[in-house]
Write a structure and sequence with these properties.
- The structure is a single chain.
- The N and C termini lie far apart (79 Å).
- The longest helix is centred in the N-terminal third of the chain and has 44 residues.
- By secondary structure, the protein is α+β, with helices and mostly antiparallel strands.
- Helix content is 47%, strand content 26%.
């Protein structure tokens, strides 16, 4: 009988350590999964954001003429509704003949609006570079 007790104590100890190890792994996995959800939520809400061309085309109903708000030398501005953010936005479609020119215009737009946070200025929300159509899209509040 004493032999079984001497043999059972270390076996129970190893078994207990194994069970605790499994519980620790399960808890750690759940924490990582929850941190991923928080991280994904922050990425979705973090601004400025890079949008997909499909997202912005859907928001403006494929840049329908009735969605056009105005325009100028650097591009046309359209009204759109972004489903992911749940808000109405203005989307500027920058497209010019030369590749270098529209990149310059896009960079100037971003440089002007990113640092400015004033109640009377529109807020820069995000951007998109549509390689297929050779244009940049800038999203404002």
């Amino acid at each position: 009988m004493l032999f079984f007790i001497k043999l059972a104590a270390p076996t129970l100890f190893v078994l207990l350590l194994g069970v605790l190890g499994v519980i620790y792994c399960l808890v750690a996995r759940k924490r990582r999964k929850n941190n991923g959800v928080i991280s994904n939520d922050l990425k979705r809400q973090a601004l400025p954001k890079q949008f997909s061309p499909e997202e912005l085309h859907a928001a403006t109903k494929n840049f329908a003429p009735d969605r056009r708000l105005g325009g100028g030398a650097s591009g046309q501005v359209y009204r759109g509704m972004l489903q992911g953010l749940g808000r109405e936005v203005a989307i500027k479609r920058i497209s010019t003949g030369t590749d270098q020119r529209y990149k310059e215009i896009f960079m100037n737009e971003v440089k002007i609006f990113i640092p400015s946070h004033h109640r009377n200025l529109v807020q820069f929300i995000g951007w998109c570079h549509d390689h297929a159509r050779n244009e940049c899209l800038v999203v404002y509040e």
